[in-house]
Amino acid sequence: MGNPNVGKSVIFSRLTGVNVVASNYPGTTVEFARGYMTFKGERTEVIDVPGTYTLEPTSKAEEVACEMMKKGDLVIDIVDATNLERNLRLTMDIIDKKMPTIVALNMWDETKHMGIGIDVKKLEELLCVPIVTTVAPTGEGIKELVLRLEEAKVGGIKGRTEHERWDEVGRIVGQCQTLSHRHHTFLERFGDASIKPLTGIPIGIVAIYLIFKVIRFIGELLVGVGEGLFDSIWTPVMMRLSELLGGSGFIHDILVGKLIAGEVDYGQSFGILSTGLFVPLAAVLPYIISFYLILSILEDVGFLPRFAVLVDTIMHRVGLHGFAAITMFLGLGCNIPGVLATRILETRRERFIAATLLAICVPCMALTAMVIGLVGEKGGQYVAAVFITLFIVWTILGLLLNRIMSGESMELYVEIPPYRIPYFGTLMKKFGMRVRQFIATAVPLVLLGVLIVNILYSLGIIEFLGKIVAPLITSILGLPQEAISALIIGLLRKDVAVGMLDPLNLTAGQLVVASVVLAMYFPCVGTFAILFKELGIKDMSKSVLIMLISAFSVGGILNVIFGVLA
Amino acid sequence: MVDLAYMKNGQSGIVVRLQGGYGFIRHVQAMGIMEGKRVTKLVSQPLRGPILVSVDNLQIAIGYGMAKRIFLDVD
Questions:
Q1: B19 in reach of chain A (CB within 8 A)
Q2: Domain end among A148, A182, A216
Q3: Half-sphere exposure of A528 (CA within 13 A, CB side)
Q4: B75–chain A Cβ distance below 8 A for any pair
Q5: A414 pLDDT higher than 80
Q6: Quick check: is A40 in a domain?
Q7: Model pTM above 0.90
């Protein structure tokens, strides 16, 4: 346990070998994670909980922490050594619960360059619990922590009331901590500059611009590599398989797909082994790699909370505070962690607004990659049209929800961690974990999606459904009725859904309409499950209703606009 | 005695009063802003945006409305 952003998750990973996402901002962990370590020769469960300032929770994530603590037998209290006073406040509360406790004085390396000296022996005496100094990312002190775990004991503290507690903390800190003068570092000065409005807003804009440039650059580079590999290695294999299967037939079409002009076309063939592998691995994976590489660096450096402060005023207009911007950022990778991260928001109303806006208007990287790939063929301005539309809808919908929904939004109150130079090892671990997670969860779903499409087509179900909803799709959205197949598969995976637009030979305008509607109309199955879990059935239904209505109205409006332009 | 929102950037002062209910006071205190503490205002965002202060070794962003309820004696 411990305050937010003190390194609990990194220590947890060190103790158990279980990888969890850790970053340099408060509120990275919103749910508990479970792992095992050997303690006194026995397999012992270790729980990583979200950070909290007090044992009286103010957000859903903090609730999780307090609940879990009640179930534990021993608390490892992680303390940020550079902020002893505030951190000890929670330590006192934990000790007061009469739980055997051991304190890990983390970020020990930073105290040295910050000119902070702490008398560990003295602190041990005063708190009556063992204390170990640690540097989590390098693993320093972790061994000692494990060795001394059994020394953990119920400590003793004075002070009953809130006020007395703080006084006691003040006394303890006064006795064990010495401060010496030091100079400001470059990182600190840059940290200040990036949060002052005059310099911060330009820095923010340049940073965001560069971030997306770099993501796109790396993404395109890797797409090129992926396509090359598929063309040179996989195409001959596919052609051979096609020959073996006789060039057509049900099995052939499911595995290899339809041959386009006698060739395998990864965009249009739609076989499990052709398009089904190409979409996740060659079209989407490159962008996943490039996005998570950049996101992981931004997280560990500490850019996100500063960004949150800069956009706080704007976010308040849509009924959220700046920290919700971080959930949107995460949502750009995948909506699922984005929705989960809404737990750091304090009220139900904020969580509803944030989750709804996320699910409707924040395209995940898989969808984005396909839109860039497919719509981008018609020209960059159409890709821009898709994203600008989503952004406008985000704004309008946010304003409306803020007006309609009762209640007020909380104000921003959050600590801004110092800029830190990321530890390469922990950074790469996190990055690798996210990429593996994508491959493990997305690839099977894409394959399943392609399989379902093929079956639905061969049974004539798509044609049948197409006829039923034709009025809606053709008249309002101006799309051919075959587009229904994309809408159906979009329930499973949106990247495959966009891929299905390829064989339909749509105009640029139609592609924009279809992409926007696909992004908005309904969450993919994974996001749907998380929305259900986080919001409950009632709020989720409301959220979904908003999605359907706004998707079709926005699609309709776009259709009219493109109709006029054409 | 002035509130935090009124203070100028760069000014520093001692917190004398947190105006609000039990919940508000606990919420604010949790991160270390409490009576007797020295707080320095670093930056304020335009249009009643959040205010950045430093307390101890920590930087904290505080919403404008909350800052209005934190009173300090400026030196």
A1: no
A2: A182
A3: 15
A4: no
A5: yes
A6: yes
A7: no
